[in-house]
Design brief:
Layout (H helix, E strand, L loop, with lengths): L17 E5 L2 E4 L4 E4 L2 H4 L8 H13 L10 H13 L6 E5 L2 H16 L3 E5 L8 H5 L4 H4 L9 E5 L7 H4 L4 E6 L2 E2 L5 E2 L2 H14 L2 E5 L13 H5 L5 E4 L10 E5 L1 H5 L14 H16 L2 H15 L5 E7 L2 E6 L3 H10 L2 E2 L8 E4 L7 H12 L2
Parallel strand pairs: 3-15, 5-6, 5-7, 7-10, 10-11
Antiparallel strand pairs: 1-2, 2-3, 4-12, 8-9, 11-12, 13-14, 14-16
Helix pairs in contact: 2-11, 3-11, 12-14
Bound molecules: pyridoxal-5'-phosphate.
Pyridoxal-5'-phosphate binds next to helix 4.
């Protein structure tokens, strides 16, 4: 049996097979212990084998593994309440879904419903998922993999951080502006408070909805609950997924009161979103982040990476918290391959010179020292 038998041949494969994991380390079939600075693509917030998360998911599996949203379950209300409180009280309703793309799809649907307009403005370099709507607002998808004959709505683009381009692009036909406050796939590129505040102001002026796609940067990765908190800019909706369930598939659309007011019975729907196991995972993930003070750890250790890892091929840093970009003097792919040969897993991105780090929030300074030593060796 090969490692890809019967699997659709659409994913390039790393040169390792994982058979187990603990903390921030992966165990491979050939007996290596690999430092995971990629976290399953920004998913493994609490690290591997987290006792509280494992207990909560196992207990829910034993108690009742599934009921749909039409059947009240306390665990669903607990997860929604926990996430709304974690987000700081700006959002009064949460729609649970299964993925980041689905969260974005529903955010756009709400914006169209509220405004009855036909255009969305997105930011160059952004990634929002692979469904027809999320792919339509993903930079470069049309040239790479979109394949649908047309997009379901009109899309205009604003260059990253270009405040001067906002007024000319965000007009009165725009239903929503969607932006990753820190782009992930785009290369751990942070938009900065000024650009985000300018988008907020323009959306207010023309009556468009502002959507923050925090699928990758959200749920503590920035060192704050959401990047909206980091930059002090309030969107109308936040979409999130990835770290939210620490590996249990789930996503969420967080809505402010005006958006909630536009909802109607059966206006949104899903079978698996808000399932009890996903909700148990969400509750346990946020519990873990809060009880272990992991956002403080993210702030401290990300600063330590900036201070100590400008060595070897690394000439600079970008991003925020544990969505960290190492700017390299050579192709990121080359650095990634060399790190993996030294038992360190890192990611690449749409920027060919940026190595992307998305580690579990539990990463410590001693493990960053392993990265520094490996980089010095390149
Ligand atoms: C910012 C952002 N939005 C949306 C998505 C899509 O999420 P999913 O793959 O869960 O649909 C991703 C996935 O990488 C992402 O990084």
């Amino acid at each position: 049996m090969s490692t890809t038998d019967f699997l659709a041949p659409v994913f390039a494969q790393y040169a390792m097979e994982v058979v187990g994991a603990e903390g921030v380390f992966l165990h491979t079939r050939d007996g290596r212990r690999v430092l995971d600075l990629y976290g399953g693509h920004a998913v493994a917030a609490l690290g591997y084998g987290h006792p509280g998360w494992t207990r909560a998911v196992s207990a829910q599996a034993a108690a009742c593994n599934f009921q749909s949203n039409a059947v009240p379950m306390e665990v669903r209300v607990r997860a929604a309440t926990k996430l709304a409180r974690f987000a700081g009280g700006h959002f009064d309703s949460i729609f649970f879904v299964n993925s980041g793309a689905e969260a974005n799809e529903n955010a756009l649907r709400m914006a169209f419903k509220m405004t009855r307009r036909t255009r969305v403005v997105a930011v160059e370099g952004g990634f929002h998922g692979r469904t027809a709507a999320a792919g339509a607002i993903t930079w470069g998808a049309d040239k790479k993999w979109y394949e649908f004959p047309r997009t379901p709505f009109d899309v205009s683009w604003v260059p990253r951080r270009d405040i001067s381009a906002i007024a000319g692009t965000v007009g009165e036909d725009v239903a929503a502006v969607i932006v990753e406050p820190v782009q992930g796939v785009g290369g751990a590129f942070d938009m900065g408070a000024e650009f985000l505040a300018a988008l907020r102001a323009r959306c207010d002026a023309v009556g468009a909805q502002l959507i923050f796609d925090e699928v990758q940067i959200g749920v503590g990765r920035s060192g704050q609950p959401f990047a909206a908190d980091l930059y002090g800019v309030r969107p109308d909706m936040i979409t999130t997924a990835k770290a939210l369930g620490n590996g249990f598939p789930c996503g969420a659309l967080l809505m402010t009161p005006a958006v909630t007011a536009a909802l109607k019975l059966e206006g949104l729907g899903t079978t698996f979103g808000g399932g009890p196991m996903a909700c148990a995972a969400i509750e346990a993930t946020i519990d873990g982040i809060e009880s272990q003070d992991l956002m403080a750890n993210v702030r401290r250790v990300s600063q330590y990476i900036r201070e100590t890892c400008t060595v070897g091929p690394v000439v600079g840093h970008q991003g925020a918290g544990f969505l960290h970009g190492l700017i390299c003097d050579r192709p990121a792919k080359e650095v990634q391959t060399a790190l993996l040969a030294r038992n360190i897993l890192a990611g690449v991105s749409g920027d060919p010179r940026v190595v992307r780090l998305l580690p579990p929030y539990t990463l410590r300074e001693a493990e960053v020292d392993l990265l520094r030593a490996a980089l010095e060796d390149l």
